[in-house]
């Protein structure tokens, strides 16, 4: 019996889909960390995450400006996902 339960759990875990795209999740985590404890010490990581979200970032740009743009990009991404979810739910209701 325990083996069957383990197999069901593993199958369910493998079927799960991530709730957020990888780059959006990384941006959200960085923003949460910044909100919890100040600016990060590695501006290259912030620039990389911002670029993954489609922002053009200069290496000479102040980290504070990049973080503000990153925060706006993450909010836009989350709003877009929420709108897509609502549209998909409404599409399913019409059938």
Blueprint (SSEs and pairs):
Layout (H helix, E strand, L loop, with lengths): L1 H14 L6 H16 L5 H10 L10 H32 L1
Helix pairs in contact: 2-3, 2-4, 3-4
Q: What does it look like?
A:
By secondary structure, the chain is mainly α. It has one domain. The protein contains 4 helices and no strands. The protein starts with a helix and ends with a helix. The mean pLDDT is 85.
Radius of gyration: 18 Å
Mean pLDDT: 85
Order of helices and strands: HHHH
Low-confidence stretches: none
Amino-to-carboxy terminus distance: 40 Å
Number of domains: 1
β-strand amount: under 5%
Short description:
This protein has 95 residues and is mainly alpha-helical.
Pick out its properties.
single chain, 95 residues, mainly alpha, extended
């Amino acid at each position: 019996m325990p083996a069957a339960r383990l197999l069901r759990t593993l199958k369910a875990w493998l079927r799960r889909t991530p709730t957020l795209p990888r780059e959006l999740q990384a941006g959200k985590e960085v923003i949460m960390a910044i909100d919890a404890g100040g600016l990060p010490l590695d501006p290259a990581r912030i620039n990389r995450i911002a670029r993954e979200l489609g922002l053009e970032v200069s290496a000479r740009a102040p980290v504070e400006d990049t973080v503000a743009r990153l925060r706006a990009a993450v909010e836009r991404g989350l709003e877009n996902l929420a709108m897509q979810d609502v549209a998909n739910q409404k599409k399913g209701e019409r059938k």
